[in-house]
Amino acid sequence: MERIKTNIVKLEKLYKRPCEKWLSRFKDGKIDAHDAFIKYGQEYEWLYENSPYDLIGWQIENNCFDWERFSWAVAEFCPEHFDKEKFNWKDCSMWVVEYCPEHFDPEKYNWENHSSAIAVHRPEYLIPEKYNWKKHSWFVVEYCPDKIVPELLNWDDVDVILQIIKTNPELLKLRPKKSTNSEVKQIEESDYDNLSERAKEEIKNYFPTVRFENKFDWELQLFSADDIADFAVKFHLKKIQEDFEVILDKLKIYIHK
User: Fold this and answer.
1) Is 104 helix (H, G, I), strand (E, B) or coil?
2) In the chain, what percentage of residues exceed pLDDT 90?
3) Alpha-carbon distance 203 to 248, whole Å?
4) Residue 153: which of 100, 168, 57 has the closest Cα?
5) Where are the beta strands (DSSP E) in 7-80?
6) pTM here?
């Protein structure tokens, strides 16, 4: 179905009734969405999921679309309007590989900050010479280990080594040389499997399922006992000067029923 390219949104054409706050902003059953988004904040996701309207198309035609702030919305909701010269590649590259990979441009893509999205969504686009191995090696190990380049992988990253030990320890044989990172050495010399099993058993006895407070977005997210066990193992292997059981007990401070 072709969307209606306009800034005027009519209540009768919406698939879902908006919340009372937005409903009160409609006058005579309609609203100027362009003006409303400027005044009250954008709601592109809600509009494109719950209406037949193409506000972004109208804004682009009328030279009033904010490419700097909302390029991600073009990639996610209306890639037919994609303009690689106007698109904000610096901040929104990851949306391209996830929602409209047909518009991927390796020369404009922000490899420095968004390499991980390539590994997760489109590993076939991974260019070893451009990929940010220093910061995003873990994602290659987790999502596309067949793309690992031993000479480029960040073997000094603790999380990378932990992931390899957990999922495919044979990959360690590809390492060009031993790590100089003391934490990595500590992990390799430890009995990871035994520590992990002990942690899982302790946590499962405490809660079958737990909630862990994410301090970054202030949302409560569900984490399994295995996830919490991994936190405990990492803390232990980073040579915190406490017994393993004490570390587990401290983790419980951040766990909510």
Assistant:
1) coil
2) 59
3) 8
4) 168
5) 8-10, 30-32
6) 0.72
For CA atoms 103, 108, 113, 116, give the dihedral sign: positive
Kindly give, in sequence order, each residue whose CB lies less than 8 Å from that of residue 127, ignoring residues fewer than 6 positions away: 106, 111
- Roughly how many angstroms between the first and final C-alpha of the chain, as a whole number? 46
Backbone angle region of 239, left / alpha / beta, with phi > 0 → left and psi within -120 to 50 → alpha: left
- Which of 82-86, 154-158, 164-168, 209-213 has maximum average pLDDT? 82-86
Spatial contact of 128 and 149, defined as CB atoms under 8 Å apart: yes
Is residue 218's pLDDT more than 50?
no
Q: What is the pLDDT of residues 92-117, one digit of tens each?
A: 999 999 999 999 999 999 999 999 99
Secondary structure E strands in the chain: 8-10, 30-32, 209-213, 220-224, 255-256
